[in-house]
Design goal:
Length: 882
């Protein structure tokens, strides 16, 4: 039977209020007995329909003030389509529901399951219904008391949300702990962990003087790898108090690291559960990117305490209310504690590679979707990253002070409530005297707006005219898109790259004194008077809106912006636009990289005033996904030749500068230091070495350039994982087969017992552009070290391969059948992870006709499987219907 589609327009408030819930967990090795006793109050007429999946109902009792306790039999209720239905209930009553579940057999990793010897929960989005019968929806908020009992030796830690209020020994080797969460929360924020874990502890004193116990739990022997996470937690608590006035509200805050986890982490109230890869780090196992990701994700989940927990979402269509807002907050945190310019570049690179592809793909959807088969499929780059861009645009429209005022209003109005994106927009706009009616189209329409830029200069009038035209792709689902309200942060430069003062009557200024143009119609022209010469526009500074800019500016203008613009993001943005233009020319048959660009790149490499991290960003070429967005059809061979040709010409022209810079960077303290500056140095070193690797060799397997020796030396003598992994990736992506195999074997032997590091070993092979990659990935899924049930291993190998545009979409290979066979098999056990692998098909519309037909044949074959989950079916069906 086809799954039923759910629509936002059909939302109805719950028919019952849950006043309180008492949960009792009796943890056994073969099963768990869950006793759920809850007090309910009727809100409107109708039956009580409780959600429940894969539950064995042991008993059901009804207690009322008039009739006392009544044991209900089979004739007193119905179980239909994962619902427990009771009719003719009084206005107020209590239900006691006893169910049995088997976490040990729960391979979906949602609800209550076991990760090794540890009991663990994941309830977002709809996992709580796998634990007990309940109104499993985010707008049903209640207070929880949780009692856990288990074997004391096997499970010395029994954790849940809120405050520990009681513990005792039960006898026969068992013990019990009781937790109470004083804050009402929806069921998706419920958490339980039981196991034998190591722990590190610290304390944090809040602004009001509350002393908070901080604890991070990890497998014994691994807790020493959690100190960076602890430091990140304390920084995020302080930052949230200072930036948004958000103070922590419990006496303890706990994090648990789990090896088997579908996502990155979960913000359960007071008890965050994390994928181990986003908690544990030390220089021997973690790269600089790992350190930064841990800091960011720890902050993200902590920030949810207010944006997600204290104020939550009314329904799952509002998911960006918490996720987009909290991504924005963690991005701002990372910018404030690190390098703001580099953080913005990194965030936009991710947005363009992931979300722009999604927006152009067969399953494109608005930030606030209108319908779905599975709410699990809402966890996308559109909801998270584009959602964050919408919040950022609000801050641009109001200025930082105005946005903080709006956030204060939001918390004051909606603390303890389940609300919508409209409620949030209203809270921000009303205290700033703004009308967000048109702006809210960003939540309702999908697709990436294209902005065509036209300009002209009238020397007689000394007048510069800038015309911006917005267009949104028309589709069957969106036949008549309306114009967005698009904020354009603007600057004008003269020919020497100096900033031109913009008079207030020609632009708007927000409270941060940033010049903003408001593009509200499909086409608008902005006139700048008293210009002695034609200026160069610096448009969409800081990437002020998630748009694609179409601007046929002269190369010399782009080079001026790349070298002189005061906005660091736009300097790097102009470099990216130049590279895209050159790469497209090479794909069309051009043979040379412009000499003017090579000259600028030499200057960049030699300029000691440019920070190493920013220099690395300037020397990083557009990703394959970003290049593909500029093409009508993917031609794997042409793309590969263009990339290789471009980098080889840069390497040859800049060889002496590259070699000198590499040697200068390869020294202390940048070999061991953990700091933003050291991260930038190591990133630049990796870029320089990658470019040098493109120097032509006199012998395909030789080392006439001496670069292979540099790479091998860096790999075998590195003092940190960043340098080591960068060198390993270059060896794997080279023609030096013997050196590649030796390094891979060396890495495997050293880290085969460390699952977190093995993720890197799988990923580095799956991302290689070499022709043997497909064969090697096929072999790796059979490798004894590959744990086919572990999401981290699956993502590292299979999702990485699915994102390898050059190899995954090679028409000469049968990658689609292999990949979809894997998805189909995985779907039977873990639908969430299987569905997330479908993101590899977002660029479907860019494929050549033969490849598109080949992929569709495989998709239709898999869709014939009647047991396919609604998660995977929804995404593949969208592809089949595109």
């Amino acid at each position: 039977m086809e799954p039923t589609r759910v629509y936002l327009k059909d939302y109805q408030p719950p028919g019952f209020e849950v006043k309180h819930i008492d949960l009792h967990f009796d943890l056994r090795e073969d099963f768990v007995v869950v006793t759920n006793q809850m007090s309910l109050r009727r809100l409107k007429t109708g039956s009580l329909e409780l959600d429940g999946v894969q539950l064995k109902l042991r008993s059901l009792e009804l207690r009322t003030t008039s009739s006392g306790v009544q044991l209900l039999g089979a004739s007193d209720y119905r179980i239909e389509k994962d619902k427990l239905i009771l009719d003719h209930l009084p206005e107020e009553f209590e239900l006691k529901i006893v169910t049995e579940i088997k976490p040990q057999e729960n391979a979906s990793l949602e609800g209550l399951y076991k990760s090794g010897s540890i009991f663990c929960t994941q309830c977002e989005a709809q996992g709580f219904r796998k634990i007990t019968y309940f109104l499993d929806r985010p707008d049903v908020m209640t207070s929880y008391t949780v009692t856990i009992e288990a074997d004391e030796r096997k499970y010395p830690q029994l954790l849940s949300n809120g405050d520990k209020i009681h513990q005792k020994i039960l006898g026969e080797g068992r013990h019990q702990v009781v937790w109470r969460d004083p804050h009402k929360k929806p069921s998706y924020l419920f958490a339980l962990v039981a196991g034998d874990l190591g722990v590190i502890q610290d304390h944090y004193k809040t602004t009001s003087g509350r002393e908070v116990l901080l604890e991070i739990f990890a497998p014994h022997g691994q807790q020493s790898r959690c100190y960076h996470a602890m430091s990140s937690l304390k920084k995020s608590m302080k930052w949230d108090e200072e930036r948004f006035g958000c103070e922590y509200d419990l006496n303890n805050f706990m994090i648990v690291a789990i090896d088997d986890f579908n996502g990155g982490a979960m913000e359960n109230k007071g008890l965050n559960i994390f994928n181990s890869r986003l908690i544990m780090a030390d220089p021997t196992i973690a790269t600089d990117a790992d350190y930064r990701s841990i800091e960011s994700v720890v902050a993200h989940e902590y920030f949810h305490n207010w944006t997600g927990n204290r104020v939550t979402l009314r329904d799952w269509f509002q998911l960006s209310l918490k996720e987009g807002l909290t991504v924005f907050r963690d991005q701002e945190f990372s910018a404030d504690v690190g390098d703001r310019g580099l953080q913005r570049i990194e965030d936009v690179d991710s947005l363009r590679s992931r979300q722009f592809s999604e927006d152009a793909g067969p399953n494109a959807h608005p930030v606030r979707p209108e319908s779905c088969l599975s709410v699990d499929n809402f966890y996308t780059a559109t909801i998270y990253e584009k959602g964050a861009e919408l919040i950022r645009m609000m801050q641009i429209l109001t200025g930082r002070l105005g946005f903080r005022k709006g956030m204060d209003n939001y918390f004051n109005k909606f603390d303890g409530q389940a609300v919508t994106t409209d409620d949030f927009a209203q809270a921000i706009s009303e205290v700033n005297g703004l009308d967000f009616s048109q702006f809210k189209l960003w939540y309702q329409q999908f697709g990436t707006p294209k902005i065509e830029v036209l300009d002209e200069y009238d020397s007689n009038r000394e007048e510069y005219r800038l015309t911006l035209k917005q267009s949104i792709a028309k589709t069957e689902k969106q036949p008549e898109p309306r114009p967005f309200h698009i904020p354009v942060l603007l600057g004008l430069l003269d020919r020497q790259g100096k900033e031109i003062t913009l008079p207030a009557d020609e632009v708007s200024f927000n409270t941060d004194q940033e010049a903003v143009l408001h593009l509200k119609r499909m086409e608008e022209t902005f006139v700048f008077k008293h210009q002695k010469a034609k200026p160069i526009p610096s448009l969409f500074r800081e990437f002020s809106a998630p748009v694609e800019v179409l601007w046929e500016a002269p190369l010399e203008d782009l080079l001026v912006l790349m070298q002189k613009d005061r906005d660091g993001f736009n300097r790097r943005e102009m470099a990216q636009q130049i590279y895209l233009r050159v790469l497209n020319d090479l794909m069309k048959g051009a043979s040379k990289v412009p000499a003017s660009l090579l000259k600028v790149l030499k200057e960049v490499l030699q300029d000691q005033k440019i920070d190493a991290g920013f220099k690395a960003a300037l020397m990083t070429w557009p990703s394959d996904a970003m290049i593909l967005q500029t093409l009508k059809t993917l031609d794997v061979s042409a793309l590969r030749l263009a990339r290789e040709g471009f980098q080889t010409q840069v390497a040859v022209a800049c060889e002496s500068q590259l070699r000198a810079l590499y040697l200068d960077l390869h020294k202390e303290p940048f070999l061991t230091e953990i700091s933003t500056r050291a991260f930038g140095v190591r990133n630049l070193k990796a870029r320089v070495l990658a470019i040098l690797q493109s120097l032509p060799e006199s012998d395909g397997n030789g080392d006439s350039s001496g670069v292979l020796a540099l790479i091998e030396t860096q790999y075998y003598q590195s003092k940190n994982m960043t340098d080591r992994l960068a060198a390993l990736a270059l060896l794997v992506d080279s023609k030096h087969v013997t050196a590649k195999r030796a390094a891979l074997e060396n890495f495997r032997l050293e880290f085969e017992k460390d699952s977190l590091v093995l993720n890197k070993w799988f990923a580095v092979q799956a991302q290689s552009s070499q022709d043997e990659t497909y064969d090697e990935v096929q072999g790796l899924i059979q490798h004894p070290l590959f744990q086919g049930q572990n999401p981290n291993h699956i993502y590292s190998l299979m999702r990485t391969f699915g994102n390898n545009i050059l190899q995954f979409h090679d028409p000469a290979k049968d990658c689609y059948r292999f990949y979809l066979d894997f998805i189909e098999k995985l779907d039977a056990k873990n639908p969430q992870v299987a569905a997330r692998l479908c993101g590899a098909f977002n660029l479907f519309k860019k494929l050549a006709p033969e490849s598109r037909s080949k992929l569709l044949n495989e998709v239709r074959r898999v869709l014939m499987n009647t047991s396919l989950s609604r998660n995977t079916r929804e995404l593949l069906q969208g592809l089949a219907e595109a």
